Amino acid sequence: MQRQQVLGFVAAITPLTLIPGASFTLVTQRVIVGSRVDGVLVALGSACGLLVHATFAAVGLSALVMSSAQALTVVKILGAGYLVWLGVTTWRSGRRDTVEPAPEPTGARPRLRLPWARLGGFGQGLWSNVLNPKAASVHLTLVPQFLTSSRPIAPQIGSVPELDEPGGGRRAGRLRHPNDRPWVSMESAEILTTRRALLRRLLPDDRTDELDVRQGQFHHVVIGAERVVCFPRTEAAAGRLPLRAAVLRALAGLELGFRTPEPLVESGDESPFLVLSRVPGAPLPDGALEDPGVTEAVAAQYAALLGALAGAGADPAVRAALPHAPYDGWREFAAGVRGELYGLMSDEGRRRAERELTALDGLPHLTGAVVHGDLGAENVLWESVGGVPRLGGVVDWDEVTLGDPAEDLAAIGAGHGEDFLWRVRTHAGPPDDGLTARIATIRGTFALQQALSAHRDGDMEERADGLTGYR
């Protein structure tokens, strides 16, 4: 990790570190009934248990467990059963300390002992963490936010268990819009190896070892100097590539005032891919909006962007080329969540989801504007001109429709905060009736949108991430 990443990780993990967990209880118990050495052995075992989870996360096993309700339930039951076993054995050992034990009769059945009981405190610490699903969730959902695509992923994951607390805990992460994933998995990093020959042909002016790789919800994206290659992560995403190319060609013909990717090469009989022109620029750096002058300039450009998309929605050619938001789209979405995801949620998670889905009943059916559908901060690219950000372009148009501009406004608010959203709306002019309520309602469903889309695409990792707050 770089210095900034380390500081960010420490800030995120500190609250979890301060919350006592199962390992804290075990260490305390072993010190009280045993010695300081026993407590140290439990701590060492707990640290090794975290290394096990780091290894599982690196090879993808944690994602498999966390995405399956049945597997997660099994782990929870095993973990709870093991803690009960420890409690019973501690109580029995306490009785043996105060009551002189009677001699065991000859031929008596030996006392039942777990296979790793001979490891003592070390084994207790190890297995209490290995069987703790919260420890797995930390490595699966929090750690990836601090990885970088320029280095192998497994060593980075392996470098953070010592910063974690053996007691574990769940993250308090920000609400993210689908595709807002600036980190890479091992699968993404392996693209440079498994597709090396193809990438050399598609990106002849780039050195393969200098390419950047990003992971979105639907694609692995390899970024060259002038071109970008998109490899679909699922069969469903592969099937949508022709439509994606057609939409991007339609957008390229518009005078939007900013650049969009243009399709250059589409796959034939080979493994599916799409080569696009690279839009120059980068997402706003952290802290950029702390400068009031920069904030106003960026807000004004966001307002102009939304105005251009609203104007394009009236173009007959655009209306013929782009998909329209379905009349019953939100109702069908709610039915899909209830039918396909409720079984993966806890009772409290279902109650939360039901509140969010019920609010969708009040949304009107609007198709007047071009809606990007994923206008998160990572998809809006900026160039610096005289120290002031200038809008360079917008990427990742997978979910574009003719629909309600409240969807894009909700994404802006999720990415940059409510104060910035208010400034954007101020530049755009007086709000129309009900816009504020529509923004809030739509933003409340972002995690469920991610989870349902990933579920239907067979992407268990993204589904688990979207359902984090509903477990």
Describe this structure in words.
The chain has helices at 3-18, 22-33, 36-59, 61-67, 69-98, 120-130, 133-142, 153-158, 186-194, 196-202, 235-239, 241-252, 292-312, 316-321, 329-340, 347-359, 406-416, 418-428, 435-443, 446-457, 460-466; strands at 212-215, 219-223, 227-232, 263-266, 274-277, 369-371, 380-385, 388-394, 401-403. The chain is α+β, with helices and mostly antiparallel strands. The chain has a five-stranded antiparallel sheet with strand order 1-2-3-5-4, with helices on both faces. It is globular and about 80 Å long.
What is the strand and helix layout of this fold?
Layout: H1 3-18, H2 22-33, H3 36-59, H4 61-67, H5 69-98, H6 120-130, H7 133-142, H8 153-158, H9 186-194, H10 196-202, E1 212-215, E2 219-223, E3 227-232, H11 235-239, H12 241-252, E4 263-266, E5 274-277, H13 292-312, H14 316-321, H15 329-340, H16 347-359, E6 369-371, E7 380-385, E8 388-394, E9 401-403, H17 406-416, H18 418-428, H19 435-443, H20 446-457, H21 460-466
Antiparallel strand pairs: 1-2, 2-3, 3-5, 4-5, 6-9, 7-8
Helix pairs in contact: 2-3, 2-6, 3-6, 3-7, 4-5, 4-21, 5-6, 13-18, 15-20, 17-18, 17-19, 20-21
Summarize the structure.
The chain has 471 residues and is an alpha+beta fold. Helix content is 53%, strand content 9%.
- Given as residue ranges, the uncertain stretches (5+ residues, pLDDT < 50) are 61-66, 96-118, 147-154, 156-184
Q: Secondary-structure element order, as H and E? A: HHHHHHHHHHEEEHHEEHHHHEEEEHHHHH
What's the Cα radius of gyration?
A: 26 Å
Q: Which percent bin holds the helix content?
A: 40-55%
